[in-house]
Here is the input.
Amino acid sequence: MRLFSAAALCVLVATTPARTAETTAGLDLVSAYVFRGVTYNDGPCLQPYVETSAGPLAFNVWANFDLNDYDLVQAGDFSEIDLTLSCGFFLGETELTAGVMEFLFPEGGPDTNTGELFMSADVPLVGGIGASAYVGYDFVLVKDVYASVGLAYELPLDALAVTASVKAGYAGEDASAGGAAGFHEYEVKLQGEYPVSESLTLGGFLMHTSGIDADVLPEQDVDFFGGLTLGLSF
Here is the structure.
């Protein structure tokens, strides 16, 4: 696996005494699995994750466990496991992150796995508003570009953290669900998180997503979904 050596390096760095390792884990229960506007399951799924970081390096493992049959996906299976190795740093107030992500599809076999190089930027603007941008290049199967831009607003509440955000994505010809290059999907999301303790956070989200151009992203089975989230830090 391409990320094995990179993951081992990340774990080695994370456990070096000169650096303090931080680990977070979580479990999301979602009403559907939708990624970049594309429906991968129109029913409930569990999505666990764990991330270890030390200094600028982070290693993340995320998975989708299906609770519902959909298309070729069967309930009771892990249909996707994603491994991400990234490095983050600040340029002024702008947070930049660069990394590599590997998408593994256990039921599809090794020929369906792929990888993406990416870079993202998060820029604080004014009054709790921030902008974000993402550019990724699939260098294994698709060999094309996906990019997105977004805006987010953090509502000034006390303990409850509420964020409203919008995002629009662009896909190259081979990266789009419809086979044409252009604006792919948009998302509108409302998310809330409440710290139960120093280490436990509970939350939830609602999202609406749809295609911008039917030639780029045909109509999907799910355009509105939500979920409950649980996060732990230690």
In short: The CA atoms of residues 140 and 191 lie 33 Å apart. DSSP finds one helix and 14 strands in the chain. Confidence is low (pLDDT under 50) at residues 3-18.
